[in-house]
Amino acid sequence: MNTIVTTRAIGMPLDRVDGPLKVTGTARYAFEALVDRRVYLYPLQAAIAAGRITGVDTRAARGEPGVLAVLTHENAPPLAWAADPEVAVLYSGEVAFRGQLVGAVVAETSEIARHAAGLVTLDYQERAHDVVLRADRDDLHKPVNAAFFGAGGGELQNGMPADTALGDVEAGLASAAVRLDATYTTQMCHHNPMEPHTAIATWTDDMLTVYCSTQGVTRTAELIARALGLDPQQVRVIAPHVGGAFGSKLYPAAYAVLAAMAAQTVAGRPVKFTLTRQQMFSLAGYRSPTIQRIRLGADAGGHLTAIAHDAIGQHARTKEYAEGVATCTRMMYAAPNRRTTHRLAALDVPPPTIMRAPGEAQGMFALESAMDEMAIACGLDPVEFRIRNEPAAHPESSLPFSSRNLIACLREGARRFGWQPRDPAPRARRDGRWLTGTGVAVSTYPSIQYPGSAAAIRVGPDGRYTVSIAAADIGTGTWTTLAQIAADALDVTVEQVQLQIGDSALPPATSAAASAGISSWGSAIVAAARRLHARLESLPGGNVPVEGVEVTAPMPDNPDAARYAMHTFGAQFAEVRVDEDTGEVRVRRLTGVFDAGRIINPKTARSQLIGGMTQGLSLALHEHSVADPRFGHVVNHDFAGYHIASNADTGSIEAYFLDEEDPHTNPMGSKGIGEVCCVGTAAAIASAVYHATGLRVRDLPITLDKLL
Ligand code: MOS
User: Fold this and answer.
1) What letters, b where the CB count within 10 A reaches 16 and e where it falls short, cover 470-508?
2) Which residues are CB-neighbours of 271 under 8 A, at least 6 positions away?
3) Which listed site, 301, 389, 475, 621, has its alpha carbon 20 to 30 Å from 271?
4) Residue 11 to residues 465, 644, 660, Cα–Cα distance (Å)
């Protein structure tokens, strides 16, 4: 990998270039696009969890003044592509989950649309539904693969096997001096980005423009075109600013397809559609709950001899989707005997989807909690126990790591946190009614690139360069960091770079997902800059900027991707106190140290890391979507019932990085940072709660009822 040599802009803690727009409220999000003669869509949602619609009566709704159209499966324009049930909106009368989109009212105002939606009568034939995940179900099945995405996921399908085995795990466990066998569970969570899922669809002549809150304009445009049977050139998706996503705006584009379909039926009128917060609890994906059994064996010296991780999750009956919950265990620790498995239950539930650190967020809670329990059983400090089991290479593939500075993260974190001196005995420290404890866990997430992006660079006047790529900024800092990468690649200042992103009319880009954005888009920009320099050098006059010269370059293949295991690492330390009488848990301090390669922008990177750690804290203690088995919906489907960690819930959160260049990942030497930061946090907190109280909570979230 040929890395960038000049780094004047990379590494600078620049303010976000879009910051002033955002703090003054002038950054235009999808729903704020200015469109004339707009109309509003309000969706109809299934009132049963399983069955089919047998009767539709829309007369009263259609008779309301101001109503332009009422769409159901009976009269919706037929879709050209319905292979994916998440996209095939209003395709049939089948109901696969409560809350499914089954129709839409389009009206002059949002109030009329909502009122008229209440006048539509739907009759159903129900069948018995089943929404409860249990480990003893006899219908658990092995998925095709354990990926970020199941069938239909396109760019995110990475085909990891569902099961792996090496050596003889049962023999390794049987002969171990110390053994652990424990089951951990994680809860259903909803992403809840601040900005809801939104689309404005508008037809002008033969062109469909969709202002859409999405993690990927290129992919969303492709999906809409395919679903509606349009030429890809006819669909343009625009998203300059996105108010958070966490995975929920990557793939399930039914809201965008429905708005586009409605715009076809009210020709010439732009259709505005936004999900309400409550609707997001059935229409925007969620993180699957999991049940995970971990078995560990170690010799008398505290070296692991066997590791087994068996994970169970759920998906919608209509669409297989498997998260790599146990894949972290394949690469984390050395042990000669090992196995991982994934099993799934198909339920009458909405389709789950990736949610920040899909797989690792859940899997590393289990593995790292087990590692803490095992360290205690071996009589070793949890930091020392992990260092003792650090692998020299990937334990299953034997590939070398492109960089793996996990031990440095542990040591640096322990130093900054003040890990020692630490009495390992639980309930050793107290402050009045507050029992105090500390815990540690490590973080990891793959650092990958997706092929499919391209960047264009055009020489402008006055030494300026226009850099174009259909990348997304979902709140992460893309507007700023890509400009920094472009500046160094072109060997100019950031001020000379005019960046264009968030528009599918630009050169294509893969979505902001899997912590792969900067690696993928940045590599394409560096390739384009190199091509531009070569072009300019070939012109008479040598390597001087010539206004109007433009090049486009795809992201090149990285041959090192097949030669190295590429992962980001981190270590997180937590101090908690637990009220002895009420069981209330407060996290006083979280310290994270991350090995994320070269840091493009320490300011935006730190924000992402702190945000992820906060989300990890929220997973540990607060977030929990509670499904009602009788009706199949999430009971606490609003912010009164679904608590997300706020300022008052977080004590001091500190994030640091080692900032060492990875020589193999990409030309910037960076690794992904968006997701690793919410991995391991919950295990660190759960272990700190154990240290404080002597109670090991293996079921997230750690609510006070589990401590009394
Ligand atoms: Mo991210 S959960 O891979 O969008």
Assistant:
1) bbbbbbbbbbbbbbbbbbbbbebebebbebbbbbbebbb
2) 38, 39, 40, 41, 106, 200, 201, 202, 259, 262, 263
3) 475
4) 21, 32, 11
Cβ contacts of 124 within 8 Å, gap of 6 or more: 46, 47, 48, 51, 52, 53, 54, 95
**pLDDT mean by block of 10 residues, the chain; 708 residues:** 81 96 96 96 98 98 98 96 91 96 98 98 98 95 71 49 95 98 98 97 94 96 95 96 96 88 93 97 96 98 98 93 93 98 96 94 98 98 98 96 98 98 96 97 94 96 95 97 98 97 97 94 98 94 89 96 95 98 97 97 97 98 97 96 95 95 97 97 98 98 96
Phi, psi of 282, rounded to the nearest 5 degrees: -125, -10
Query: Of all atoms in ligand 1, which is nearest to the CA of residue 250?
Result: 4
Q: In the prediction, which pLDDT does 144 show?
A: 80
CB 606 within 8 A of CB 677: no
Dihedral sign for Cα 675, 680, 685, 688, please.
negative
**Residue type, position 613, single letter:** M
Q: Which of 198, 217, 349 is nearest to 280 (CA)?
A: 198
- How many Cβ atoms are within 10 Å of 91's Cβ, its own excluded? 15
The pLDDT assigned to 8 comes to: 93
Residue 180 DSSP code: E
Ligand 1 atom showing the smallest separation from residue 357 Cα: 2
- Going by C-alpha positions, the residue among 154, 215, 200, 182 that lies closest to residue 296 is 182
Q: What angle do CA 389, 394, 398 make, to 5 degrees?
A: 120
Ligand 1 center to residue 675 CA distance, Å?
8
* CA 564/CA 446 separation, integer angstroms: 12
Distances in Å between the Cα of 455 and the Cα atoms of 13, 78, 494, 521, 531 are 24, 35, 17, 8, 11
C-alpha to C-alpha distance for 563 and 401, rounded to whole angstroms? 9
Q: Which residue has the tokens 């990890």?
A: 616
Angle at 292 between CA 286 and CA 298, to 5 degrees: 145
- Atom index in ligand 1 nearest the CA of residue 353 equals 2
Q: Facing residues of 345 across strands? A: 314
C-alpha count within 13 angstroms, C-beta hemisphere, residue 141: 13
Closest C-alpha among 256, 230, 236 to residue 508: 236
Give me ligand 1 centre to Cα 416, in Å: 30
List, chain by chain if needed, residues with CB within 6 Å of any ligand 1 atom. 215, 246-247, 250, 354-356, 358, 513-514
| Calpha distance 673→447 (Å, rounded) | 8
pLDDT at residue number 2:
78
Strand partners, 442: 571
Element (H, E) at 63: helix 59-63
Task: Report d(CA 706, CA 578) in Å as an integer.
Answer: 12
Q: Give residue 279's pLDDT.
A: 97
| Residues carrying an active site annotation | 675
Q: Are 675 and 324 in contact (CB under 8 A)?
A: no
* 322 Cα: distance to centroid of ligand 1 (angstroms): 14
Would strands 198-204 and 207-212 be described as parallel, antiparallel, or unpaired?
antiparallel
H/E element holding 653? strand 650-657
Give the mutation target among 249, 288, 675, 676 for probing the ligand 1 site: most ligand atoms within 8 A of CB.
Answer: 675
φ/ψ (deg, to 5) at 677 = -70, -20
Q: Rounded distance, CA 465 to CA 529, Å?
A: 10
What single string gives the DSSP state of each residue in 276-333? -HHHHHHHS--BPPEEEEEEEEE-TTS-EEEEEEEEEEEEETTB-----TTHHHHHSS
